[in-house]
Amino acid sequence: MHDVDVVIVGAGAAGLSLARRITGPAPGRDGGLSVALVDAPAGPLRPPARTWCFWEESGGEYDDLLAASWDRLRVTAPDGMAVTARPAPLRYKMILSTHFEEHTGALLHRSGCRRYEAVVDRVRDLPGGGAEVRGRDGAGAEFGLRARWAFDSRPRRPGPARTTLLQHFRGWFVRTERPCFDPGVADLMDFRTPQPARGLSFGYVLPLGPREALVEYTEFSPAVLGTAAYERALRHYTGDVLGLGPFRVTAAEQGVIPMTDARFPRRTGRAVFPIGAAGGATRPSTGYTFAAAQRHTRAIADALARGRTPLVAGPHPPRARLMDAVLLRALDTGRIDGGAFFSGLFRDVPPHRLLRFLDGGTRWWEDVLIGFRTPVGPMLRTVLELPSIPRRPPLPEEHHRHAL
């Protein structure tokens, strides 16, 4: 069994980002840390290629890897009324997971990070201090590592929650015969889709050029659909709503993201810490994860560089988590209409402030101002009843691998 300073389980966005930050140069670091990164062998446990989206100012650390970015965002209400906003100085950005993995993998190779492939079934504290990772490699042989600190990004079943919805989607990368898209505008939510009995649905369009785009059908609802149902919804949206005309599908992505007000632990042992979606990086009200995972791994790497225990603040502040709990409950009970709610926010709130709010970066008085732009009565009723609602364990179908 090998010994290292840090072992990271899972080579998704969070695992790769943390490994890169630990092995890269850092002020205050007294010598280098030995790092091992363990990824699942090729197969069902390794997530498929996917897109990661987030917003930030130009000049970000991953700008060289962007597949595209947009300076204007559009939200279309159920009645077809569209609001197009320019959230300057923020831009909406998209990274392909394959590009991120290739770039970060090359950096880690040069840094001396040890890479392993194994199916990990146990990450736990050791009696004398530190942690161990155990599992089996691709050939079925026993695999083990010991480390001072372990960071685990494997999907985990959310804990008891008052509300759990699923954000589930299927997207097509399309190429049309004629120019159909404005490359400068991203459609975040287009509510001109048939709405489910419980929850909401919308279209999502990220243009990559005048004739190319990622077009997705997304639902926030209690249960996923079959692939055939997503395909029908996409045919309706691309044909009847967008009127794209003839096109071909060059690739597809599909995923499910739990939207829950469950509590995510900051540590699962004295030397074991969850990261990524497993560590609560997914924003319950939106499903976005990438930007929060970057903040979280940056804080962990900084603590390690300073020789401290890497127990840092969670990816989202408590006030943001409380507001998310209220929104999820209001959506799930049907007290608010999801399409009207989100399109109203984009219509009435300055776009840069709204995006900072969705990322948990607003101050309390800004949150109050935004709250007055929501249906105050239903939201206040939900706030008052929330403490009396018991948390319950999620149903089996409410736990899915994070795929965005």
Automatic annotation (TrEMBL):
SUPFAM superfamilies: FAD/NAD(P)-binding domain. InterPro entries: FAD/NAD-bd_sf (IPR036188). It comes from the Bacteria. It holds the Pfam family Lycopene_cycl. This is Lycopene cyclase. It comes from Streptomyces tirandamycinicus.
